[in-house]
Specification:
The structure is a single chain. Helix content is 53%, strand content 5%. By secondary structure, the chain is mainly alpha-helical. It has 2 domains: 122 residues, Orthogonal Bundle (hpI Integrase, Chain A); 44 residues. The protein has a two-stranded antiparallel sheet. Strand 1 and strand 2 form a beta hairpin. The longest helix has 14 residues. The chain is globular.
């Protein structure tokens, strides 16, 4: 539970910073957290669905099908080639013997709790100086969404429709708010004032 009047909504991580921290974590031999962040930003899955992934879910095929825990909807996800290579690199670096093993196991051999993952992300934010104010597991899903929107070029309105569908939002207005567009535009309005 959060403190009264505190702000607990996660922000998205700028894409270049997210990719950079994935590489730095790998280099620092924090393979599972490197993979956790990469999986979150390349799939847009909620943390509950990320925690349920096994190595064989992410290896071999170009797409995976997931029944989302929250919505109970089936979602098909295309896996980026570079992301698939990162999965294989982490698999090898960790010396995984059983491809049916959960991807995100703690040193105790249990799947990380959401609370523990949030603590680890906050530690990563501090250690690697991530330019994000509020971070949690949900920041990864927002990073995925924001990256797709930012790369849409002239098709931003069409992409908002797709994102709305991917994220199971009931409207593009909710998606706009979710990826912080509304707040950014409100703050930019203050820049129009002159003294």
């Amino acid at each position: 539970m959060s403190a009264k009047n505190s702000h607990t909504t996660a922000d998205y991580i700028p894409w270049d910073s997210a990719i950079n921290v994935v590489h730095r974590l790998y280099k620092d031999k924090s393979y599972r957290m490197s993979l956790f962040i990469a999986t979150g930003i390349f799939t847009g899955l909620r943390v509950t669905d990320l925690r349920a992934l096994r190595w064989n879910d992410l290896m071999g095929e170009d797409t995976i099908a997931v029944i989302e825990h929250k919505t109970k909807k089936r979602r098909e996800i295309k896996l980026n080639h570079d992301f698939q290579q990162h999965v294989m690199d982490c698999y090898s670096a960790l010396g995984i013997k059983n491809p049916n093993e959960y991807c995100f196991l703690s040193q105790k051999g249990t799947v990380y709790t959401i609370q523990r993952l949030n603590i680890l992300l906050k530690d990563i934010k501090r250690k690697y100086k991530l330019p994000v104010k509020n971070i949690s597991c949900h920041a990864l899903r927002k990073t995925f969404s924001r990256r797709i929107y930012d790369m849409a070029g002239d098709n931003k309105e069409e992409v908002l429709l797709y994102l709305s569908e991917i994220l199971s939002h009931s409207s593009t207005q909710i998606t706009r708010k979710y990826i912080c567009l509304k707040q950014e535009h409100i703050l930019q309005a203050y820049d129009l004032l002159t003294f």
